[in-house]
Amino acid sequence: MDAGLKPEKLNLEARTPEAKEIFKYWLRCFEAYLDSSEIPILGPRKQRLLHAQVSHRISTTLEKAATYEEAVELLRKRFVKPINEVHARYLLSTCRQRSGESLDEFVEKLTTLARDCDHQDVTG
User: Fold this and answer.
1) pLDDT given for residue 2 in this prediction
2) CA end-to-end span of the chain, whole Å?
């Protein structure tokens, strides 16, 4: 395995606003790390490597899983919550540019908020 691809330990609170994005990024990095091995990594070893790359608080969640796939699904349930579109639209509509915030930063914040709104194309 390529040590340069080894991700940091996942030490994340599910309640943080960016937990979903951080978890998805971490999982992509972890799977790239597993794929960098010259020999295939099978189920039980994958699961042990996953346990080694999460914090002690998160590892208690993974103890219920019998396979690697179940462990990843438990992590997804913990960190990837369904989006409340009504709340997302409220956050977008009430977002204001703060003093000292550049226009680029504000547009980036609006773009991030708009992703969760599920806007559809208007058809006539």
Assistant:
1) 64
2) 54
Of 89, 90, 77, 80, residue with least CA distance to 118: 89
Between vectors from CA 84 to CA 78 and to CA 87, what angle results, nearest 5°?
125
Residues 64/82, Cβ–Cβ less than 8 Å: no
Statement: residue 71 has pLDDT above 70:
yes
d(CA 61, CA 56): 9
Ordered by start, the domain boundaries in the chain are 3-79, 85-115
- For residue 94, pLDDT over 70 is answered with yes
Q: Distance between CA 49 and CA 10 in Å, rounded? A: 12
Q: Which of 117, 19, 36 is CA-nearest to residue 76?
A: 19
